[in-house]
Amino acid sequence: MKMAMFPRLVVAGLSGDSGKTVVSLGLLLLARERGVEAAAFKKGPDYIDAAWLRWASGREARNLDTYLMGFDEAKSSFASHATGEGLNVIEGNRGLYDGFDSKGTHSTAELAKALGAPVLLVINATKVTRTVAALVLGCQRLDPQVAFAGVVLNQVAGKRHERVIRQAIEESCGLRVLGALPRGAGDVLLPGRHLGLVTPEEHPRLSDLSSSVLALCRDNLDWKAILAAAQDAPAIGAPPESRPAAPWTKRIRIGVVKDSAFTFYYPENIEALASLGAEIVPVSPLRDEAFPRDISALYAGGGFPETHAHVLSANTAWLQGLRDACENGLPVYAECGGLMLLSRAIHWEGRRYQMAGAIPVEAAVHPTPQGHGYAELEVDRENPFFPVGTRLKGHEFHYSAIVPSDVPTPTACRIIRGAGLGGGRDAIITNNIWAAYTHLHAVGTPEWSRGFIAAAREKNGRRQTDDG
At what angle do helices 267-275 and 447-467 cross, to 10 degrees? Predict the structure, then answer.
């Protein structure tokens, strides 16, 4: 196997909200400021952090999820999209050793070992001093195979606070402290809400954010030392040149619902459809006056339709066009927020907002998650996209749930792991619609793109026959 040098490091923490995202964004922006090519990756299935990494790096950020993809595919995806000359930043998720089970399967640490990437450990130092050294030492000793580049302290109260912790870590752990961020800075820069951070598309001060993050990290991170640690990462195997999948003979048009309300798409999913010959057509219920009539299928991903519900419900012509297209057999693949768009209504903050009404359910947004984590489904009923018997690995993170109703709703999958629609089921099927809470990744589920294209081709053939 051909070996290649990919300067890289994993930005990890002891838990969620440790400051990983601010540090990752800062490193990417610093790299670009200094003329260093930067590429970004997000460990796990998270869409929002990946969107911020894309914003900071100036290029698509790739998710690396060993549960959804498998280790070999995750390593191949990294090597296929990493830069060989600059800096590759892999932002971890949750705590360093938090994974699928008590052994930390599919954790950030396991990904770091698989990629041979040193870990830059970000630690929240609120109301603690020497104990930070004990935490770092525990991380080192829990798995000696994990390599550490150094430590960044977050939420530091002042110079004395930083000095005491720095000395404790360097004396007890033999690691360098490569940065210290002052208290409160990251919280102001990246506000949160349900599901995590706000998206770049909805950030209230996006035009000023780059300079603010740069100022914070330029003054408080040891850029040269961090870059040197990334450059010291060992060579790893690079995948052979892959042949693109052979596209279908006749090109088809697939609409993708994409705007500030619907942003949750893995780039590989869109690329997989395009590689099979699809022309991707962006559509938007926020900005378009009418639903397009010249597409062969629709992909409605996740996002935040509830925060845009007033505008969405007001675009009655677009919603009516979507409903009519569904009734006429348009294949529609919808995930989470897309399911809510297809529903009869969204209940949000005490109000009911009319949606397309293409599926016979309503969705209510709750104050706590209704489904969160990895999911596994088994397809057990006929549907437009997957053969019966197919096993699907995905993930879900939704605050909405289907409003209970006495009307039975046909579904395609039994749940092996996860919450889905409730009652052990997921994936509403009606007409040629698949509407589920489970998100899939095309790399881990290659049959997804093939089934999508096949459904679109069948619709395209029927339309040509009708027109003829």
Answer: 50
d(CA 432, CA 385): 9
Strand 371-379 with 391-398, pairing? antiparallel
Nearest to 342 by CA among 283, 381, 301: 301
Q: Provide φ and ψ at 35, rounded to 5°.
A: 75, 20
Which residues are annotated as catalytic? 336
Element (DSSP H or E) covering residue 28: helix 20-33
Cα 345–chain centre separation: 26
CATH 2.40.128.20, domain 3-237, yes or no: no
Strands (E), 135-176: 148-156
Residue 105 has pLDDT above 80, yes or no: yes
The reply to whether domains 3-237 and 252-467 share a CATH topology is yes
Sign of the torsion formed by the C-alpha atoms of 223, 5, 111 and 109: negative
What gap in Å lies between CA 214 and CA 313, rounded to an integer? 39
| Spacing of C-alpha 453 from chain mean position | 23
For 34-84, the DSSP string reads: TT--EEEEEESS-HHHHHHHHHHHTS--EEE-HHHH-HHHHHHHHHHH--S
Q: What distance in Å separates the CA atoms of residue 364 and residue 399, rounded to the nearest whole number? A: 8
> Topology of 252-467 in CATH?
Rossmann fold (3.40.50)
Nearest to 173 by CA among 132, 210, 205, 203: 132
Domain ranges of the chain: 3-237, 252-467
Q: What is the pLDDT of residue 4?
A: 72
Phi/psi zone of residue 20: left (φ > 0), alpha (ψ -120 to 50 degrees), beta? alpha
Mean pLDDT of the 120-141 span: 97
Please check whether residue 456 is in contact with residue 278, taking contact to mean a CB–CB distance below 8 angstroms. Answer: yes
pLDDT score for 208: 85
**pLDDT confidence of residue 207:** 77
Q: How far is CA 446 from CA 73, 393, 438, 460, in A?
A: 12, 11, 16, 22
Q: What is the mean pLDDT of residues 220-232?
A: 97
Specify the pTM: 0.92
> Tens digit of pLDDT for each residue in 285-302?
999 999 999 999 999 999
